Each structure stands twice: as C-alpha cells, then as structure tokens.
Amino acid sequence: MKCLTEINFTNNKLTQIPQQLYSLPQLRKLYLARNNLTELPEGALGWKNLKILDVAGNRLSVFPVGFQFLTLEELFFEGNHLVPFTLMESVQEKEVLSLKELSARLILQQSTNELSVVSRALPAYPELQDMLSHWGQCALCSQPFLTTWLECVQFINTRKHMGMKSSQSVPVRVLLCSYDCFNRDDHQYYGLVRL
C-alpha cells in the first residue's frame, strides 16, 4: 500500500480522511471531491510528492497550517464553504492567560534548551510530556503555546506561494499566540470569527 501513487475517493460521503492515507509517501494524485469533509488535517502536509489534490464540493472553510508548502501542480477546491476575504473592524483587548497556559509556555520554551533544569527533568513526568506534545507555534513570534489561542487565516495566492500555474486565492489557517502578535503591523493575517 505504501507504493500507491493515486487514490480516488470521490463521492464516498467521507467526513474525515482515513488515517492510512497519511502514511503514503509516494502519493501523487488524491481525489476527495464531493464528500463531507470539513477540514484537511495537518497530517496532509506529509504528502511531499502530492501534485494533484481535488477537494471540490466538500465543506472546507480553510486549509491547514503550512498548506502553502505543498508542491501541488493542480488544486481543485470550488464548491466549498471557504472563508471569504472580507475585512471587519474589531477591538482587541489585552488577554489574561490562565496559569496552566503560562506554565506550559514557560516549560515549552525551557524544554528546547538542553542545559535547562526543565529540559532535564521533563522525562521524569510522562503525563506532562504527553500534555505538552500538542503544542503549537506562533506564526509571528515563533514562541510555543499549548492552547490554540487565536485562529487566523492568511489568503495565499497559489501561483505566488505554491508555484502553481493557476492563480487563485485560498485561505490557509494560521495560529497566533496572543493579541500582542495579532496587533502587530508586519503581517497579512486576519482573525476568524465563527458564527
């Protein structure tokens, strides 16, 4: 099965992508059109050889973090419920992070330094390691965080950012760690509001 290069799951009423698909390193063509998919998980980024992705006619709203790094040649996504590119004014108040989040961020920062006490002590706490294994990284400041704090989208141009022949704008999910980062002027990220 690891040698498969093309899979067609069109019209199968899929609500999620089968886990087995993420372990197909040779996959070049994937047809998932006209199903009931609401998201493409971040595991999709493991398809390093994927050239054609057809997700038309699903219920996607955004593409996963890092989607623009896939080396696709063709992308079909019409007929989804993609986030529209409309700007809205909003007021962002300074947030107060929970003690759990503050502690997790400190531990995550310290765990990358092999000389720190935290880094050396962490293996003695497997439950803590498991909890921290689901951390994210801020797209702007690159600092780690535990809880998905601010979900944003970046509208990328498929020709400019992915090297595709067609020029289309697609929303790609981006995660930020705080309103301090969101309020910076040096980015093109837009906050998502789920209604």
Automatic annotation (TrEMBL):
Does this UniProt record's set of keywords contain Repeat?
Answer: yes
GO cellular component term, pick one: cytoplasm
**What keywords appear on the UniProt entry?**
Leucine-rich repeat, Repeat
- Known Pfam families for this protein? LRR_8 (PF13855)
Q: Does the keyword Repeat apply?
A: yes
Checking InterPro entries in the record gives: Leu-rich_rpt (IPR001611), Leu-rich_rpt_typical-subtyp (IPR003591), LRR_domain-containing (IPR050216)
**In its UniProt entry, what is this protein called?**
Leucine-rich repeat-containing protein 69
Native organism taxonomy = Eukaryota, Metazoa, Chordata, Craniata, Vertebrata
Gene name, per UniProt, is: lrrc69
